[in-house]
Design brief:
The complex is a heterodimer of chains A (372) and B (330). By secondary structure, chain A is mainly alpha-helical. Chain A has helices at residues 13-49, 56-74, 76-90, 95-110, 127-146, 152-167, 170-174, 183-195, 203-216, 221-231, 241-269, 278-296, 308-329, 332-344, 353-365, and strands at residues 201-202, 238-239, 276-277, 350-351. In chain A, the strands form two sheets. A two-stranded antiparallel sheet of chain A has the order 1-2. Chain A has a two-stranded antiparallel ribbon with strand order 3-4. Chain B has helices at residues 10-16, 19-32, 34-37, 42-54, 64-67, 71-91, 97-107, 113-124, 135-147, 149-163, 178-181, 187-196, 200-213, 221-229, 236-245, 247-253, 266-281, 288-315, 326-329, and strands spanning 94-95, 133-134, 198-199, 233-234. The chains are: A mainly alpha (372), B mainly alpha (330). The interface between A and B is large, with 42 and 34 residues.
Chain lengths: 372, 330
């Protein structure tokens, strides 16, 4: 049975693969074309400038060969191919800026200056250490921004890369001497021992990452605060990969959700710019809540027991049915019904954009698991 | 990200931003100067190249064909020209066409005379182009000429056809040789026509038709319509001058601030104040007159030298630090 009949957008795997393939083909073609064009251009310029004491054909061929050798030896084609693929995948609005950032990132990664945990450095807690951390954080955030969370495979890859980047910082915390000025470091030293080298992202860093993701996604701090509280990790805790991924995904989806809620409010209150009547606002939020509850399922039909393998088929069917039901609840006529009902009766007063946003956020946040 | 927007096909996305052009140029430059650039590593080189493209510094001292290759390059060049030489505007000096060309050649060694000539014609209304021009007049005309070059050429052809009495309903091909095919017109009639110009309604019609099929950039149609609606007849250069002065066109191009803000340059002012203080303190000068002479030379020298310093920064050990003046102005 097909588990993919959910009306919610499915993973973008097939789409991103196709795009990647066509991008690879384009880039290969362009690179070949480019190399031959620039060879030709170069040769024209060279032969125009230099007087030809040597028979031109030979020297031209020799020069173009040496150029090609130089390019292959420096690994320029792979470098550019990788850059083009990344750029096409991200489809940023500023491709030039994207490429600049991409190459800067690569340069600083291969630069020995940024370096990994060197036991004798002892610069933890100093300004240099913090700056390095900030740099790592920025690069991790850049990776997380590359693919939208609906492109699951690309997104997961990027999360992995970001996690590894942030993970590298934790070894530095191990080598502090007892008398440090920063209490965080003292906490960090002890529980880390059993976690081992690179045992997880530092809790504080993890929370910071989530905060940046939310604010970059356009969510005001007050709206994202309750969510961040739920996902919060203590600074001394080491965050494993699953938790990291869960947190990042939640924030990404949450930002989308809030943006959509903002748009929804704008649509409901239309051009007047007067605040929406409370009843109407509540009706819309209520419909959304109902739909979400339906998708969660009553749990009665599908009991999870030890024989989950045999039931997995059934489970995915039930899930699919639930999604269908949920989206049916969100269909335009259902919503219109709810809104019409609300206008006749319901609480008075008006609801402004901020309240609406908070209410929508609440609907989302109540479903987020609190980490123990 | 683009989840809620339709996906643009790969080729279109790459074309719109001229990214492949920049990649090609980067590789070409790398090959030409490989001895200089391999010292820092290829990745570092590409990072620097694209950073300079992003910061609009990439066109300095490059050849003219590179400058006019993409709209971004043209905008960057106009902006750099303005930043280098806005002190001239402050001093209120009027320069000739040749002098402006020399200034341009300091930034771009092979900058052609024709472009400067066309810009001068816009300012001077095609009249006595040896006259002196103010910096701001020249700058806006130059911006129009460089950025919308292709459009202006096509419009000129349309205008000349209309002047010669060709019917606007015929298909106007930009590369037409219509001038030779025209029946001989009496000389006095032509002169008179040229002074008055052509009917604005017909010109507007032709320009709309041109824009519908035009592949290059053109000024916003609403601006052109506004200008043409104001009079019954318009001459080519008066039309262009109005375009050059039009604020929306300026904003559309996005290279220069509005005329009121054109001459504001707080850093250079500070530098000059410092220099004046030094000169008046130094034992060499005893009269205010002698202070002005060296000051002017310093004005002229300071900016090109600073720019050469920018270019050399790529070759000198660079840790990606920002440029001296540019970043603080943005």
């Amino acid at each position: 049975m097909i588990a993919r009949c959910s009306p919610l957008p499915c993973t973008g795997t097939s789409r991103s693969d196709a795009t990647a393939a066509s991008a690879a083909a384009t880039s290969a073609r362009l690179l070949r074309h480019k190399t031959s064009t620039e060879m030709a251009e170069k040769e024209k310029r060279r032969s125009a400038v230099l007087p030809p004491p040597v028979p031109e054909a030979d020297s031209r061929a020799a020069r173009s060969d040496s150029d090609r050798d130089f390019l292959t030896q420096a690994g320029v084609s792979e470098l550019l191919r990788g850059a083009i693929l990344k750029m096409v995948e991200a489809r940023s609005e500023d491709p030039i800026g994207f490429l600049a950032d991409h190459f800067c990132n690569l340069a600083s990664e291969s630069d020995p200056g940024t370096g990994t945990g060197d036991g004798d450095e002892g610069n933890n807690g100093t300004v240099a250490g913090r700056a390095q951390e900030q740099q790592r954080l920025n690069r991790a955030l850049w990776h997380l921004r590359l693919a939208h969370h609906s492109h699951r495979s690309a997104f997961s890859n990027n999360v992995r890369v970001a996690y590894d980047l942030l993970n590298e910082l934790s070894p530095l915390l191990r080598v502090t001497d007892p008398p440090t000025n920063d209490t965080d470091q003292v906490h960090a030293a002890s529980p880390r021992d059993e976690a081992g080298y690179g045992g997880g992202v530092r809790g504080g860093l993890y929370s910071q990452t989530l905060q940046c993701l939310c604010s970059e996604g356009g969510v005001p701090a007050s709206t994202s605060a309750p969510l961040l509280r739920r996902l919060h990790c203590q600074d001394h805790e080491a965050v494993p990969y699953d938790v990291f991924r869960h947190g990042v995904l939640t924030c990404a989806v949450f930002s989308d959700f809030i943006r959509q809620a903002q748009r929804l409010y704008a649509d409901v209150c239309c051009q007047d710019e007067e605040p929406v009547s409370r009843a109407l606002g509540m009706a819309v939020i209520g419909t959304l809540k109902e739909a979400l509850e339906t998708s969660q399922g009553s749990g009665g039909n599908c009991a999870v027991n030890a024989n989950t393998q045999t039931h997995s088929c059934l489970e995915s069917n039930v899930k699919a049915i639930r999604y269908l039901e949920a989206s049916a609840k969100l269909s335009p006529d259902m919503l219109a019904q709810a809104m019409a009902k609300a206008q006749t009766r319901g609480p008075g007063g008006s609801m402004d954009a901020k309240e609406f946003e908070n209410a929508a956020a609440e609907v989302f946040i109540t479903r987020v698991k609190v980490l123990s | 990200m683009s989840r809620f927007n339709p996906t643009v096909p790969v080729e279109e996305y790459l074309e719109d931003s001229n990214v492949m052009f920049y990649l090609c140029d980067a590789v070409t430059q790398l090959l030409e100067h490989k001895e200089e650039y391999t010292h820092f590593g290829v990745v570092r080189y590409f990072a620097e190249y694209f950073n300079s493209v992003r910061n609009s510094n990439h066109i300095l001292f490059r050849e003219y064909s590179y400058i006019k290759a993409t709209p971004h390059n043209r905008t960057s060049f106009i902006r750099v020209f303005w930043r280098c030489y806005r002190q001239i505007g402050k001093s209120g000096e009027l320069l000739s066409m040749q002098e402006y060309r020399s200034l341009l050649q300091l930034l771009c060694p092979d900058f052609p005379m024709e472009v400067v000539q066309c810009a001068a014609r816009i300012v001077l209304m095609d009249d006595a182009i040896d006259c002196l021009m103010s910096f701001s007049d020249f700058l806006y005309a130059f911006q129009l000429q460089l950025f919308y070059q292709e459009f202006l050429d096509s419009t000129l052809e349309i205008y000349q056809d209309l002047l010669a009495g060709k019917s606007p309903n015929t298909v106007i091909v930009p590369t037409s040789t219509s001038v030779e095919q025209l029946p001989p017109v009496a000389a006095e009639e032509k002169e008179e026509q040229q002074q008055d110009g052509v009917e604005t309604s017909t010109l507007a019609q032709c320009i709309e038709a041109l824009c519908d099929r035009f592949k290059h950039n053109y000024p916003p149609r609403s601006c052109m319509r506004d200008i043409l609606e104001q009079n019954d007849k318009v001459s080519y250069y008066s039309f262009l001058m109005s375009l050059a002065k039009h604020e929306s066109v300026n904003q559309m191009i996005g290279a220069l601030p509005s005329k009121a803000d054109l001459l504001i340059d707080p850093e250079m002012d500070q530098e000059l104040d410092k220099l004046i203080a030094q000169i008046s303190v130094s034992p060499g000068s005893n009269s205010s007159g002698s202070a002005v002479g060296p000051l002017k030379d310093v004005q002229r020298k300071a900016s090109p030298r600073r720019n050469i310093h920018h270019k050399r920064k790529i070759e000198v050990e660079s840790d990606g630090s920002t440029e001296e003046t540019d970043s603080s102005e943005n």
